[in-house]
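The following record pairs a protein chain with its ligand, adenosine-5'-diphosphate.
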Amino acid sequence: MSKNIIEIHGMKKSFDKGRVQALRGVDLEIKEGEFVSIMGPSGSGKSTLLNMIGAFDRADEGTIEVAGIDLMKTKRLDKFRSQQIGFVFQLHNLIPNLSVLENVEIPMLRTKATTKEMDERAMEILELMNFSNLSDLVKQNPTRLSGGERQRVAIARALVNHPKIILADEPTGALDSKTTQMILDLLKDIHEKENVTLVMVTHEPDVGAQADRTVYVLDGKVKEKET
Ligand SMILES: Nc1ncnc2c1ncn2[C@@H]1O[C@H](COP(=O)(O)OP(=O)(O)O)[C@@H](O)[C@H]1O
Ligand SMILES: [Mg+2]
């Protein structure tokens, strides 16, 4: 059996000075290399959970260990995030006035990579994302791409630093069904080939069912079964 890469116990998180209790005691274990989908009603705490795992913010209570790092204690949340985590959002969050290549290279700016190394890695990962005429594409602004193409660029950006964990928050939420399946196939491919742990929030049952395991978030708690 592989070991847990994410281990959360009794985690709580509230907003607005405790008025909004987004997470009310989450227990969740995810194994290295697993593909887990997270489902549940709007407002149930899915994005908050993902943001805690990705160390965008700190939990109020409980324990959370990700990739061997105690996120309640470590002072370097940003360093942890840039080294271990790749994020994909529903809206790709690409920067419109940078080129595709520059967008993909953003996470590498904090590393010691040279310009040549950054270009090579960005091209390599864009190629994995099924872009054919790369030489034309890389100079373009993302505004000229279709929704599916933009999401593929966003996935390339998430993967460029070889993260151990990909966190995807409704990555296909804005796409039609055909493009959804293409994006999902790419994510599954990466998950298999690179042994990346993939945690994906989705509200689409067909999408969630393609994971190894689905967990449900209801009223700020995780359930392994839908109730
Ligand atoms: N930064 C924030 N400030 C205040 N309330 C928030 C914040 N983020 C989330 N919430 C609240 O926490 C609850 C859970 O939100 P969220 O995790 O985004 O749910 P989901 O992703 O399942 O739709 C909601 O009631 C939401 O309004
Ligand atoms: Mg959400």
